[in-house]
Amino acid sequence: MDTSGCTFMKVIVPVKQVPEVAEVRINPETGTLIREGVPSILNPFDEYAVEAAIQLKEKLGGEVTVVTMGPPQAKEVLLKALAMGADKAILLTDRAFAGADTWATARTLSEQIKKMEYDLVICGKQAIDGDTAQVGPEIAELLGIPQVCYVRHLEVEEDGKFVVVHRGTDEGYEVVRVKLPALLTATKGLNEPRLPNIMGIMKAKKKPLEEVTVTTLGISPDSIGLKGSPTTVRKVFAPERRKGGIKIEGTDPKAAAKKLVEFLASKGAI
Amino acid sequence: MVLIYDKEKCTGCMLCPKVCNFGAITKDGNKVRFDFDKCVLCGSCQEVCPVNAIKIERKAVDKDKIAQYKDVWVVCETAEGRVRSVAYELVTKARVLADNLREKVVAVLIGSDTSSYAESLIQQGADKVLVVDDKAFADYTTDAYTIAVTSLIAPRKPAIVLFGATGNGRDLAPRVAARLGLGLTADCTGLEIDDKRQLVQIRPAFGGNIMAEILCPYTRPQMSTVRPNVFKPRERDVSRKGTIEKVEVKINPVQIRTRVVNRVKELAEGMKPIDTADVIVCSGRGIKDPANLTLPTELAKLLDAAVGGSRPVVDAGWLPPSQQVGQSGRTVCPKLYFALGISGAIQHRIGMSSSDVIVAVNKDPEAPIFEIADFGIVGDLFEVVPAVIEELKNLQSER
Questions:
Q1: CATH code for the domain in which residue A25 is found
Q2: Cβ of A34 under 8 Å from any chain B Cβ?
Q3: One domain, residues B296 and B242
Q4: CA dist., res. A238 & res. A29, Å (int)
Q5: Do B84 and B227 form a contact (C-beta atoms < 8 A)?
Q6: Has the ipTM of the complex gone over 0.90?
Q7: Residues B108 and B234 reside in one and the same domain
């Protein structure tokens, strides 16, 4: 697929619209989430994935397709990715998709991706609402391709057949080489995601955005969404709110330190 | 669950007989033949087939079949030839769950030259240890470990499988779950057994703003990754007896599709990773200069603690990314957490608010970190921390 000596990279980026979790609260009486007034954003880890895909395209030539599964308003995050520089977008939206756990989500997204051509799939490390970090590896398995998680650095080898990445570990990173096609999950440090400019925002509205339903996807509604999810949420509740304890103010540092050490010893913490 | 073999599609490449750990696939002319008495539906052949001629369809387990799934398993993570502490925490918890179910605890120990640790897992509470000891498992790779875990699970039918929610655990567990078509709950902080003998998996979501109870009603095993440091390992009983079973899992090199070219340690000599540390000394903007990190480092040494940083400290390159606490870094729950010069923005609190004891030192009396600190000192960290170090030294010399 070489075009004028360039390596043409087809990259798919699955993304998620998430609430700005810092502002999510629970209603203590009903035990349900208060979502009103909470802004929706493109999952921050997905921004690294979108940026990485666009940078590959700019460097090597190629095409970036963003895919999301969600309600109709999830289109907003696709438009943002298009405004950043992605070429095409796919919105998987259907009532049958709703209520999916990570497995059913991965299954739905992978069924879509199977219909497309790709060299790389890049996901964010995790979504900041669920924090599971499971959908990426589950998509990789369902596509039957290798995965490398927590990618901080990405290079494509000259022939365009392998990538070399830095995978973040507890103590540093591993340099991992993997043959394409592969799935990567992006973490902080991979790049600085760009802000869409006015031109980008204007262009985004004209770029192809395809809507896919369970019928057009062609899978059984029983195998996806709430019905197809092996896990179910039995209950949600507010965590016990942590309260401040002792606060020392205006004491000389020595006396304060002494009190702290006594406190820690009494708690068995030291 | 059924395996569907499409003979038409099969090109006779003979990869699948090579990767089958159960001898269920044999050459049959220029195609293959499946022995369904031997096949456990582990999925290795499906994964390796280049033309998708093998398909495994998995359906929910029937209610009466759920009872066939027994025992609580812990997949014990090894690193640099040793069992990680999270494995002992999970075996301790698994013991409680298994006693409740009147079933056994099985520890899965995969590694290279790590089988000598099997006894320690029995002493910790395991009834049985499944040991896979081979050079192919010296370093963690997604592919080799997925094959090993799935080929252990598929024929033995455990009711529950627990993984540590570490970097590698969270890479491995979803891969295994997807291969076997199972539910998986991430990063649990609580586990219980309900009156229907189901595993209740409790986990934070939305940055810890809510807690959720999650069940896996239709599939077995029930699988969870569990956050390190949440369950405390109990004292080992050296007189405890159990069985050790060595299992051979063959890995064909073609099955490992990633290659670790190099490992880079960014932590200075003697520095501990924050992930599994019991005590973390974390610095924020208030530390002002990278040279000043010697102060928290000295405190950390006294407490055998890890040195962490808030986002600005890591973004400035003063500490490696592995040491960042917070939403864009890591979530930690040590027994003791020091927040030095950290104001405590919500994104930081998301990463540390479940610590057992929180100590905060900050100049600003209005800093939000004080709202959650068990012990707060309003003051200059450059005066307070040296005084704390002094006091700790006094205490340690007294002891």
A1: 3.40.50.620
A2: no
A3: no
A4: 10
A5: no
A6: yes
A7: yes
